[in-house]
Specification:
about 65% helix; about 130 residues; about 0% strand; elongated
Length: about 130
């Protein structure tokens, strides 16, 4: 075999290889387009049976039920209600590792009075409580 023949065979092999790569890229692009079109197709769903049988339910906190049970069991009023002036539907907040508002108010008052405060420590404590 001569040098010219080897170079020609390598050139034909590389041309076939690149033609194969182009062909597979085109096929992958078509498959991606088809998959995207399938994802965007709309389906009709009939929920008329579910809509007819729908019954609304009231969702509330468990604390309300506990308070009602306690209030039904006691004949005397809660001593907290006498000293706290809150609206009738007031509920205590559920604690989620947050900073207590009373602590924040205390720190803000100290900052206003003295000009120094440990708000950074309070926030750091809250972040570490998670």
């Amino acid at each position: 075999m001569q040098y010219g023949q080897i170079v020609f065979i390598l050139f034909v092999a590389m041309a076939c290889y690149y033609a194969f790569l182009i062909f597979t890229d085109i096929r992958k692009a078509q498959a991606a387009r088809n998959a995207e079109q399938e994802n965007h197709t709309e389906e009709e769903i009939d929920i008329s049976d579910e809509a007819r049988s729908f019954r609304p339910t009231r969702v509330s906190r468990d604390e309300e039920k506990k308070e009602e049970a306690v209030n039904h069991g006691q004949s005397e009023p809660d001593p907290r209600q006498g000293k706290d002036f809150r609206r009738p539907g007031y509920r205590e907040a559920i604690m989620t590792d947050g900073i207590l508002v009373d602590d924040l108010i205390h720190e803000i008052d100290r900052l206003a009075e003295t000009g120094t405060s440990d708000l950074g420590i309070v926030i750091y404590t809250c972040e570490n409580a998670r």
